[in-house]
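Predict both folds.
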Amino acid sequence: MLEVGEGHTLYVEEVGNPVGIPVIVLHGGPGGGCSPAMRRFFDPEQYRTILFDQRGCGRSRPHACVTDNTTWHLVRDIEHIRTTLGLDRWIVFGGSWGATLALVYAQAHPSRISWLVLRGVFLATQGELDWFYGGGAGKFWPDLWARFIEPIPAGEREDIIGAYHKRLFSGKRSEEVVHARKWAAWENALASIDNDGAVAESPADYALAFSKLENHYFINKAFLGPDHQILANMDRIAQVPGTIVQGRHDMICPPRSAWDLHQAWPMSELRLVARAGHAVSEPGIASELVRTMDNLARQSSTLRL
């Protein structure tokens, strides 16, 4: 456990080769937490893999806490992990919200990045939030969309994020859990291209952390400035190399964001994966990520580490 200030303590773990290529894994959400499955992309003989639960998530404490929990706190936490471990540079690996955070961190500390590996790109723009919480994705999944908005009165459905915010932070645990599970279920159901819409009910503690933190970040526009802040600041990482892995049928983070990022980033390679959605568990996406990390291990002598 690593203390990072403001009363927050992060769960941090290291696996693999202690003198291997350092790579930090940024999980999604916000609010998702890391898991042992995230280790599978990194050859343990080649990589020193660092995973952590972001503020309020997983095994970090306090649980589901949104106080002093912003994108900029997380960027500072990542730097604190790097300096605590005595690393000069590292590969930053992130998917979905983890890709957002990886880009923001890289733009703040470009000299610390040897390579960026991003999956399921989310640029935290209003258009992306409108797609997923304003009915865009619901046009493809009308039954699940109806289930998601059902607990919200008709007069509040123009602002689903705001309407859920009132209920997720009502102070009544029973009400918060009900709405947290519905919020999490909407996203989980659309993650995989093979999902038929059926999703198991999330445990209460997980649902609360995932949904409250995600909603907290989204109602605050990810604590970024102008709507297209990430794309506007791509000049800061113009010399940082990276790989983007994106499912062509991603219903949560449509491929247009990955395409726009690639166009603004001359040092990037974009790999669009056919017949794949958003989830890192999609076979095509997992294979591309493993291939990417194996290739980087083979060319480690050329990486700035």
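Second protein follows, with its predicted structure tokens after the sequence.
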Amino acid sequence: MRSHTLFLIISMMSVSVSSVHAQTIVKSTQDDQARVEVTVYNGNLGLIKDIRDLKLPQGEGELRFMDVASAIRPVTVHVRSVNNPGQFHVLEQNYEYDLIDYNKLLNKYVGHTIKLMDRNQYQDRKDITEAILVSNNNNSPVYEINNEIYLGHPGYHILPRLPENLIAKPTLTWLYANQAPQGHQIEVSYLTRDITWQADYIFVLNPDDTKGDLSGWVTIDNKSGAMYKQAQLKLVAGEVEQLLEDYLQRPSGVYKMLSEEATAPQFAQENFFEYHLYDLQRPTTIKDKETKQISLLEAVGIMARKELLVDGTPGYFVRYYRPQDQDYKQPVMVYVHFKNSQENQLGMPLPAGVLRLYKKDSKGSLQFVGEDRIKHTPKDEEIKVKVGEAFDVVAERRQISFKQLTTQMYESVWEITLRNHKDKDVDVAIIEPLQGSWQIMEESHPYRKLDAFNIRFDVRVPKDIEVKVTYKVRVGI
């Protein structure tokens, strides 16, 4: 049975500075970091600023800047010396991402001699066989041993050395020219994909659905391939234009959930270009393949209102419905509204995200009642959340009559029946989307015109009572 363990017999020495081809190679790792800033955008994008303290020899040399994001967009890299900008210049840049793994190592040795070590458990010894690796297609090695071809062979693979063109971590490599005798503080900034954030909100309604408490959380999902230690975190809310390219496709990853409790807002908010910037007022570590949650806001006593709504369809008004064709039942949708204003205990620009509603039952236990996605909402704007469908309020629609007056003119009478099985009176809104040129000829209840093609009936339905709303409409298309 072939083992998948790979042994490397390699003579290596860990050095940070060496001389190759008359050029000095300097390796920089995360240990050199002075600070790091991470700005995360809504659209699968992050801006990384990595500042490191480095001592570079004078003259030309090679700097290997390691521990960068594997999802980096190399064309966006910008490097400069903060303290000696005129004495450090990048002449050439390479991004090395041919990372070490089992099959890449084997593929590098196709056509070369390697060793296979097999343990003989009966004689308590290790047998070593030299073999030429003929191919490794589909991860199925083929060997030539003693002028014979073996399709697979037991034992561990032993390679003489690590190939020079394979690296353990993604690395930015620069050919630089340095005139400064003292050290540099090098700032490297770049864009990376696979780091995102979104806002999640919890809204807890009071018993009569007139007020609620809102808590907001920021959820950061990092799959960029790098860890950011004690980073200064900033979030940008808004739709930033990006070119759609293949490298923006997101791979799957492993999630790790962390929760950070907070009793006060941790983000300072400011206007930024046509967006909003949220600046975390303390450093935080964002690990690779981690989902982190940080408190965004807390607000109590928010005035809210619940709305029951029946929506119509424009196509109703230009065709005849036989009784057997009519779908009498209409969903009664439930919405919750509240205003994002300072007078309403809010007033902070709210980034887009999912808002989940909860309410306590008769025993005081919190229960989930629905969720909806909200858009970016500036201050003093209303938020409308679709919760679900009403259980005890029923709506039925019937076409009472239909006439085609001309080839493009239709007249119909509609009846919407509302029944309330709750133990209290309710208000139900009916919105009818009309089309073309229209005119209401008769109506049982007053309506108001919302815009050119929508009217609204607001109807009080007493408990255990049935209310019928009828109207005649003439539509020309």
